[in-house]
Amino acid sequence: SPQAITAGFFYHTARLARGGYRTVKHQQPVFIHPNSALFALQPRWVLYHELVCTSKEFMRQVIEIDSSWLLEVAPHYYQAKELEDGSGRKMPKKTGK
Protein backbone atom coordinates (compact mmCIF):
# COMPACT_ATOMS: atom_id res chain seq x y z
CA SER A 1 0.00 0.00 0.00
CA PRO A 2 1.15 3.61 -0.49
CA GLN A 3 1.12 4.14 3.30
CA ALA A 4 3.44 1.16 3.82
CA ILE A 5 5.84 2.50 1.18
CA THR A 6 5.67 5.91 2.89
CA ALA A 7 6.60 4.26 6.20
CA GLY A 8 9.71 2.77 4.58
CA PHE A 9 10.83 5.78 2.55
CA PHE A 10 9.50 8.71 4.60
CA TYR A 11 12.77 10.60 4.17
CA HIS A 12 12.41 10.60 0.34
CA THR A 13 9.64 13.15 0.00
CA ALA A 14 9.10 16.27 -2.06
CA ARG A 15 6.45 18.95 -2.31
CA LEU A 16 5.33 20.90 -5.37
CA ALA A 17 6.43 24.53 -5.15
CA ARG A 18 6.88 27.34 -7.62
CA GLY A 19 9.30 26.25 -10.29
CA GLY A 20 9.06 22.53 -9.50
CA TYR A 21 9.50 20.24 -6.53
CA ARG A 22 11.63 20.68 -3.42
CA THR A 23 12.58 17.97 -0.96
CA VAL A 24 10.72 18.46 2.31
CA LYS A 25 13.66 18.42 4.73
CA HIS A 26 16.44 20.15 2.79
CA GLN A 27 14.54 22.20 0.19
CA GLN A 28 16.66 20.70 -2.61
CA PRO A 29 15.21 21.33 -6.09
CA VAL A 30 14.17 18.02 -7.68
CA PHE A 31 12.11 17.05 -10.72
CA ILE A 32 9.87 14.13 -11.66
CA HIS A 33 11.60 12.16 -14.40
CA PRO A 34 9.91 12.79 -17.79
CA ASN A 35 9.41 9.01 -18.26
CA SER A 36 7.26 8.87 -15.12
CA ALA A 37 3.50 8.42 -15.41
CA LEU A 38 3.17 11.24 -12.83
CA PHE A 39 5.24 13.70 -14.88
CA ALA A 40 2.19 15.35 -16.49
CA LEU A 41 0.01 15.08 -13.38
CA GLN A 42 2.25 17.08 -11.01
CA PRO A 43 0.78 15.86 -7.70
CA ARG A 44 1.35 18.19 -4.74
CA TRP A 45 3.17 15.62 -2.53
CA VAL A 46 5.35 12.76 -3.81
CA LEU A 47 7.64 10.09 -2.47
CA TYR A 48 10.53 8.78 -4.59
CA HIS A 49 12.81 5.78 -4.44
CA GLU A 50 15.97 7.40 -5.79
CA LEU A 51 17.44 10.59 -7.20
CA VAL A 52 19.31 10.41 -10.50
CA CYS A 53 21.43 13.37 -11.48
CA THR A 54 21.70 13.95 -15.23
CA SER A 55 20.87 17.43 -16.54
CA LYS A 56 18.83 17.93 -13.31
CA GLU A 57 18.21 16.04 -10.09
CA PHE A 58 15.43 13.66 -11.18
CA MET A 59 13.20 11.60 -8.90
CA ARG A 60 12.69 8.00 -10.07
CA GLN A 61 9.97 5.52 -9.02
CA VAL A 62 7.58 8.21 -7.79
CA ILE A 63 4.21 7.80 -6.05
CA GLU A 64 1.70 10.39 -4.89
CA ILE A 65 1.28 10.59 -1.12
CA ASP A 66 -0.82 12.44 1.41
CA SER A 67 1.28 14.72 3.62
CA SER A 68 -0.68 13.60 6.72
CA TRP A 69 0.84 10.10 6.32
CA LEU A 70 4.27 11.54 7.07
CA LEU A 71 3.28 12.66 10.56
CA GLU A 72 1.63 9.28 11.16
CA VAL A 73 4.62 7.16 10.12
CA ALA A 74 7.50 9.45 11.10
CA PRO A 75 6.57 11.87 13.90
CA HIS A 76 10.19 11.63 15.06
CA TYR A 77 11.39 13.05 11.71
CA TYR A 78 8.78 15.61 10.64
CA GLN A 79 7.15 18.54 12.38
CA ALA A 80 3.62 19.61 11.47
CA LYS A 81 4.78 23.04 10.24
CA GLU A 82 7.04 21.39 7.64
CA LEU A 83 4.02 19.58 6.25
CA GLU A 84 1.58 22.45 6.03
CA ASP A 85 -0.19 22.07 2.74
CA GLY A 86 -0.03 25.70 1.74
CA SER A 87 -3.37 25.30 -0.04
CA GLY A 88 -4.10 28.90 0.87
CA ARG A 89 -1.19 29.97 -1.28
CA LYS A 90 -1.67 30.34 -4.99
CA MET A 91 -0.37 27.53 -7.15
CA PRO A 92 0.39 27.82 -10.85
CA LYS A 93 -2.71 27.01 -12.90
CA LYS A 94 -3.31 23.32 -13.65
CA THR A 95 -0.68 22.07 -11.17
CA GLY A 96 -1.07 20.42 -7.82
CA LYS A 97 -4.21 18.65 -6.71
TrEMBL record:
Residue stretches spanning the membrane: none
Superkingdom: Eukaryota
Residue ranges occupied by any DEAD-box helicase OB fold domain in the UniProt entry: 3-77
GO MF terms held by the record: helicase activity
Keyword annotations of the record: ATP-binding, Helicase, Hydrolase, Nucleotide-binding
Identification of the protein by name: DHX16 helicase
